[in-house]
Design brief:
The protein contains 4 helices and 22 strands. By secondary structure, it is an alpha+beta fold. The strands form 5 sheets. Strands 10, 13, 15, 16, 17, 19, 21 and 22 form an 8-stranded antiparallel beta sheet that branches. The site of zinc ion (ZN) has 4 residues, from strand 13.
Length: about 325
């Protein structure tokens, strides 16, 4: 009798607990700041909320009637330079591309935006929810010498890393890219961006780009307008090209058999910059396509999926070839 009564009480409390927890969760999602105003250091996300997965690119919009002198965002210590958006018949606004690095920890972070107008500055605060992406695990078997580097190769690799770091630190303050992105090669999207790599049984750094399978010697196009910041012949990347599209946005093309551009060249979207190869650490001919956005390693295909439909800035000049067999952004499946 006692036992039953106790049990029932216990059940009732559990149900009540569950209801309370549900209510708190519901309330906190509606009033994230007010409910815990005593425990949170400062209200965040007052101006909106964004969410995305690791490796994704988010388009952040800031409204503004007047022309600001500078609009700059800070997210996880990265600086996001906003640019002016103009659409006929719509109020002027500013857009920033926010990259979520493939290894950013899931959670909620603040994107602080400062809108400067002459002497005055306005602060905006957005919440950015970073969700976990389910990255694949890849097992690769490579010649031993390509995985276990000797001392000389390790020193070379370190020097190459430094060279890339320095070149990428110098990004163009001008926005050179436009909304019509081009898939650099007509090939098979392998969907292994961010995959955890096990090489010859040893865990290695995650894969920081997308590999596109294509025949040896196939044309590789620049995915947007920009300036060639660096051309390399590196131990892992092989022959490669780094393009600076401005405002902290870079694309990279690795394992090329041939490089057809040189440092400082201006390139346009669709321009052939090299040929598919298997130089560096590669198991066969393919293009490694990588993107860095304000230092965040993002999935290059998220650029093709960006919601820019009606040219934010420049229209694509008619002379620029667009790969005919390339899938339209709408038709490209987003990998889960
Ligand atoms: Zn790759």
């Amino acid at each position: 009798m006692m036992m039953t009564a106790l049990k029932q009480t216990h059940v009732r409390i559990s149900r009540l607990d569950r209801m309370l927890i549900t209510a708190v969760v519901l309330l906190s999602s509606v009033f994230p700041v007010e409910l815990f105003s005593n425990t949170l250091p400062a209200p965040k996300g007052l101006d909106g909320q964004y969410s995305g997965k690791q490796g994704q690119v988010l388009v952040v919009k800031v409204k503004g009637e007047e022309q600001a002198t500078e609009v700059k965002g800070t997210f996880l210590s990265r600086t996001i330079q906003f640019f002016r958006e103009f659409r006929p018949g719509e109020p002027t606004g500013y857009i920033g591309l926010l990259g979520i690095d493939m290894q950013d920890d899931p959670g909620t972070y603040e994107l602080a935006v400062e809108v400067k107008q002459g002497e005055q500055a306005k602060q905006l605060s957005f919440n950015v929810l970073v969700a976990k992406e389910k990255f694949a695990v890849e097992h690769l078997t490579l010649p031993k010498e390509k995985v276990d580097l000797d001392e000389k190769s390790v020193a070379r690799w370190k020097a190459e890393q430094e060279q890339v770091k320095q070149a990428l630190a110098e990004n163009s303050r001008l926005k050179l890219w436009h909304s019509n992105f081009v898939e650099p090669v007509n090939g098979k999207r392998t969907g292994i961006f961010g995959s955890v790599r096990i090489m010859n049984g040893q865990p290695r750094n995650p894969h920081n780009g997308e590999d596109i399978g294509a025949p040896m010697g196939a044309d590789v196009a620049a995915s947007n307008d920009g300036v060639v910041r660096l051309t390399v012949d590196h131990v892992f990347s092989g022959r490669g090209v780094f393009i600076d599209h401005g405002l902290g946005f870079y694309t990279m093309y690795f394992h090329l058999s041939e490089v057809l551009v040189k440092d400082g060249d201006l390139v346009t979207a669709g321009q052939i910059i090299g040929k598919v190869g298997a130089t560096g650490r590669a198991t066969g001919p393919h293009l490694h396509w990588g993107v860095k956005l304000n230092g965040a390693r993002v999935n290059p295909y998220s650029l093709l999926d960006l919601p820019f439909k009606s040219g934010v800035t420049l229209p694509t000049p008619a002379t620029i070839p667009t790969p005919e067999t390339a899938p339209t952004p709408e038709a490209v499946p987003v990998r889960e």
